[in-house]
Amino acid sequence: MPARPQTNRRDRREDILNASLHLFARNGFHGTSMRDIARAADITEGLIYHYFASKRDLFRAIIEEHSFLPVLRTLPELAEHLDLRALLIVLARGFFDTLKRNPELARILLQEVQVFPEEKEAFFADAVGRSITELAGILETRMTPSVRARVDPQVMARIFFNALLAFFVEQEILGGKHMLPADETGYVEHLVDMLVRRVGPGAARPTGPRPVT
Questions:
Q1: Domain extent at residue 34
Q2: pLDDT, tens digit, 9 for 90 and up, residues 94-142
Q3: Within 10 A of 23 (CB to CB), how many other CB atoms are there?
Q4: Alpha-helical segments (H) within 52-102
Q5: CA 10 to chain CA centroid, nearest Å
Q6: How far apart are CA 132 and CA 204, in angstroms?
Q7: Whether residues 97 and 130 fall in one domain
Q8: What average pLDDT does range 36-51 have in this prediction?
Q9: Domain identity same for 74 and 49
């Protein structure tokens, strides 16, 4: 019996997030009220504030749970077992899979976030900024000293994610898959190969304790 209220709490929170995501995509962030969200989630408006302090807090939670961040959290563990090429391919596929599963989130980010600076700040600080920082840290550890002297890992990480986002926007948002279709797998492999040639192969480096010699 004690577990049931916790399950209900999780379900209600998820209902609120799903309703918010749908309404933000359809009506815009500022075109959606807390009352609209409560009606769509079939709860009272006051109950929303039990879970989220504000609409911006809701927006941040959507980014946290429905964006690329959950995939990003697996990156350190993957980096222990994969060489750089394999790691980047897994990362790219996870990025595309996330956007395809959440087309409404992509629509919000591309339409609304460009207009409203506070929401744009939340997205870039949480999703884009952390993605670039995490990948840049891994790239830097995989670089030899000579490569590190001439290649900025932050720039390379930014190029990687920007290229993925540009491809998704071209194909899925602007209609390129109907007018100028491109092979996603081929695109990813070419992008990854260009980056690896620049950075180096970067073998996996397990982080466990070193054997005593």
A1: 3-58
A2: 888 888 887 787 777 776 655 566 666 666 666 678 888 889 999 999 9
A3: 20
A4: 55-66, 69-72, 75-79, 84-101
A5: 22
A6: 19
A7: yes
A8: 94
A9: no
CB contact burial 185-203 (16+ within 10 A = b; e otherwise): eebbeebbeebbeebbebe
Cβ proximity of 74 and 90 under 8 Å: no
Cα separation, 189 vs 155, in Å, equals 19
Q: What is the predicted pLDDT for the residue at 145?
A: 92
Torsion of CA 41, 46, 50, 55, to 10 degrees: 70
Give the Cα separation of 203 and 167 in Å (integer). 27
Residues 166 and 77 in one domain: yes
pTM above 0.70, yes or no: yes
Helices 55-66 and 3-27 sit at what angle, rounded to 10 degrees? Answer: 100
Q: Which residues of 88-127 are buried (b: 16+ CB within 10 A; e: fewer)?
A: bbebbebbbebbeebebbbbbbeebbeeeeebeebbeebb
Q: Judge whether residue 19 has pLDDT over 90.
A: yes
Among 34, 58, 82, give the residue marking a domain's end.
Answer: 58
Report in angstroms the alpha-carbon separations of 120 from 56, 159, 160, 173: 11, 19, 20, 19
